[in-house]
Amino acid sequence: YMGGGHRNFPSMEGEAEKKYTTHDFSADQKWQSYLNNLYPMPPMNKMDKFKRKWFKQNVDSSLSLEPPVAPQTAPRPSAPSYATGSASYSAPPSSTPTAPPKLASLANLQVALYLLMIVCGVLYLIPLLGMESAQSFYRRMILCAMAASAVNLVSQFGMPKFSQDYLRVILMDDSAHFLFYGLVFYSSQPISAAMAPLVITGLINMADQLKAVLPVFAPAIYSKLSGRIQQVIANRMLLLQYRGLIEVVLAFVLIIFSFTPAGSFLTAMMYLQFVRLRYMISAFTRSACHDVGAKIDGWLSYPMVPSLLRTGWNKVKSLLAGFVNTDQQASQRPSCTIM
Fold first, then answer.
1. Among 169, 163, 153, which residue's Cα sits nearest to residue 100?
2. CA atoms within 13 A on the CB side of 195
3. C-alpha–C-alpha distance, residues 178 and 197, integer Å
4. How many Å apart are CA 202 and CA 208, to the nearest integer?
C-alpha cells in the first residue's frame, strides 16, 4: 500500500486479514516448528507481530504487518485478546475497566513479596522465635516466592488464559518453573539448600523491578540504592550460573537422601521433573549438568577409584541422559511437559 498510512487494494488485504484471523495456528506444523525455534519466546503482547510476519512470508504476502485500525467486534469485550490460532490480537482501549493492573503496582507487589521471602528465610535460618516457628517461616518463604513468580507472570503475559500459545510462552519463563519448584519443596521437609535458587531469582527480579520503578516514583531512594542494583544487574550471568549449578547439585542431594529415613522419594522424583524441564530450556542448567558430570568423571578417573564405582556412575549417567531425553531436547525444547 502507498503513502499516508492509507491502504490500497482493500479487497486483497481484507481477504488476507480474514484468512489470518481464521487460520488455525495450533494445527499448523510449520508455524509450530517456527515457534519452537524462537528463543527467548516473545511475550504475549508481541506474539501477534511474530504471527503476522510469519503468515505474510509463508501464507499470504498481502497481509499487513499492522492489525486493522478500525475497531473489531470482540465476542468477549470484558478481557483483552492475546492472539490465538483463531483470533487476532486487539489491544484493549485505555478505558476498558478490565485492563491489566498497572505495571508499577505489580512491580511494587513483586518487590514486597521478595523482601518478605527474604525476611522469612532469615527467620528460618536464625530461629529467633523458636524452632517450631522456624519451619512455618520456611513454608511462608516458599509461598512468598511462588506468589512473586505468579505476579511476575501476570505482569509479563497478562492474566492466565486457556490457550496453547499462552501455555507455551509461560513454560519458557523462569517464573513458571519456580512455581513448580515451590510446589515441590512446600510439601517436603525443610531443605536449606533449596532456598538458594529462590533467593538468587528474587535478587535478579528485584533489581530489574527497582531499576524500572524507583527512578520514576522515588528518585532519592534510587540514588542511594543504584550502586547495589547495578551490581546485581552486572553480575546477572554469574548469578544465573550459580543458580543452575545449585539446581543440579540439589538433584544429587535429594536422590541420595531419598534412600535415608529423612528423605522422600516422591520429592526427589518431582524435583527431577523440574530439573528435566530446566535442562531442556535453561542453558545455565544444561551447562551445569555437563560441568558436574565432567567433574565426577574426573574424580572417578583416578586409578585408586574402584571400577565398581565407575561402572555404577556410568549407569546412573545413562539413566539420567535418557530421563532428560538429550537426543530430542533441541527439537522439543519449548514444547516439553512438566509431568
1. 153
2. 21
3. 9
4. 10
Q: How far apart are CA 202 and CA 113, in angstroms?
A: 9
Query: Of 79, 100, 82, whose CA–CA distance to 90 is shortest?
Result: 82
What distance in Å separates the CA atoms of residue 108 and residue 104, rounded to the nearest whole number?
6
Q: For the segment 252-272, what is each residue's pLDDT rounded down to a tens digit?
A: 889 888 888 877 888 888 998
**Dihedral angle, C-alpha 77, 78, 82, 85, nearest 10 °:** -60
The grid coordinates of residue 5 equal 498510512
Write out the three cell numbers for 190. Answer: 525443610
Per-residue pLDDT tens for 6-39? 444 456 667 888 888 888 776 677 777 777 666 5
Could you tell me the pTM of the whole model?
0.63
The three cell numbers of residue 51 are 504471527
* Spatial CB neighbours of 264, under 8 Å, sequence gap ≥ 6: 188, 189, 257, 258
Q: Which three cell numbers stand for residue 277?
A: 524441564
- DSSP H helical ranges for the chain: 10-22, 29-36, 44-58, 103-125, 131-157, 164-170, 174-186, 195-217, 219-234, 236-257, 265-281, 283-300, 307-324, 329-332
Cβ contacts of 126 within 8 Å, gap of 6 or more: none
Which position has the grid cell 517436603? 188
Q: Is 85 in contact with 23 (CB distance < 8 Å)?
A: yes
* 84 beta partners: 87
| Mean per-residue pLDDT of the chain | 77
Length of the chain: 339
Whether the Cβ atoms of residue 334 and residue 36 lie closer than 8 Å to each other:
yes
Query: Which of 203, 210, 313, 216 minimizes the C-alpha distance to 255?
Result: 313
